[in-house]
């Protein structure tokens, strides 16, 4: 059951330094199940940051459900030029976000459920969370063949990935978040998560391509709502808490003081592109000149998302040395994504 209500006193109970309101004492005694009313990837990632930074989770775990409009989310230590088709994303109006956790790149849309399990650092256990999801899936469809892997993925029929995992472990608090593919756009997913850019050399974390499948393809009754309710029921039973899913607005500063500044930071160029680990590009292309093809070579070193070293090599009769030197100098300091298209 979904319950929209002011969570202010709930969060006062869970936050440090706050005196609990008696009316919510039983509701949040052992934890909460939350669901965002927003489909904005930056706002929902900001909720994760806010809970991780501000809440006392000792004996009070939290499960957070959230879904996003079409977007691509890269891991904390990844390279967007290497992971996705930035040109196609721009054409289709797809948002790009960098999360705080590690792991690989994922495509989000309204057919994908995101689940975040918040606990203390001591209680952090990814496999236990995945087993909980498996029990929920088995409860709604006992015939499903879904298994957890050593990489903390969930595989359907032994080969199709329906869930990937990432996590962030702080000094006292931790969270594990994972996806659950219900009815996502598979064609869009595969085309967006395929970089067309050649010659990239990087030590950034690289995603591992996998075959994927929607649960709805296996059973048309497995809608996002059915799956979220099943996981919520299992989570509540496991933690012995109220199974109600509480709706939250991630832009409400009365519930989450300072959260909008967190969301704004996640949208900045400096965070999305500027946090990319240093990388280089060594590529070439051909141009037609007087009925012959000339090879143009390009070497770039990129740091903090901006061109640090640029060396373009081309025949002098096509691009004179003086002009080439000026071109190389003019590109230094530019953001690399200006030239990815």
UniProtKB/TrEMBL annotation:
It catalyses: N(6)-[(R)-lipoyl]-L-lysyl-[glycine-cleavage complex H protein] + L-lysyl-[lipoyl-carrier protein] = L-lysyl-[glycine-cleavage complex H protein] + N(6)-[(R)-lipoyl]-L-lysyl-[lipoyl-carrier protein]; (R)-lipoyl-5'-AMP + L-lysyl-[lipoyl-carrier protein] = N(6)-[(R)-lipoyl]-L-lysyl-[lipoyl-carrier protein] + AMP + 2 H(+). Pfam families: LplA-B_cat. It comes from the Eukaryota. The keyword Cytoplasm does not apply. Residues 57-243 form the BPL/LPL catalytic domain. Keywords: Acyltransferase, Mitochondrion, Transferase, Transit peptide. This is Lipoyl amidotransferase LIPT1, mitochondrial. It comes from Macaca nemestrina (Pig-tailed macaque).
